[in-house]
Amino acid sequence: MMRSEGREVVAPGAAASAGTIRMTREQRRANTCERLLAAARRVFARSGFHGASVEEVASEAGFSTGALYSNFDGKEDLFLTLMEREIDEHAREIVEAVRPRATVAERAAGGASRWMTMIEREPELLLLFMEFWAYGVRDPRVRPKVAERFAQVRQTLTQLIADGVRDFELELEIPAEQLAVAIDALADGIARQKLADPQAVPDELMGRVLALLLSAATRPAAP
To answer: Is the CA virtual torsion 78, 181, 116, 169 positive or negative?
Structure first.
């Protein structure tokens, strides 16, 4: 055992006898949450929200149901937390695909291309988003929580639209928030059509339609 700047450091040769480095209580809890969320992602994508159970998620993560209930209020809370994280990740990917582009059309193509890649890469997750939406709108108690999660996407789109208007000296024909709703609806509709009949939806279709929509919704700013 060596000491460095007041902290204990296990020498390489002592790793086997010392075992794994002890984690703090907060680190253990965070690690447990991460493992449960990763397991929930697989189980919910595989079985759907209604088909999945807390027992299945806990077993997939290698824990008892007690560990799940000590970190989440139950299946619904776990589901909502997972969706919030997944939506955050997808929003981040869209932002990265859009912001570096040099024209409105290129930004539309970049964002659309990333969305189409998501549909092809993770169709089960998109189906889960749809199930999440259907689950929420059927239950007035849950609906505000679901709406809050999906509002994250619209907020991201609204900011991207505002950035484009500023960067390219444009004015909008309708408020950015309403245009974001239309773009979000277009993305959802394209995803449903692509999942149901892949051959009917060319990969470049969303980018072309989105570019037309943005062209119609914007005009050069007045001097």
So the answer is: negative
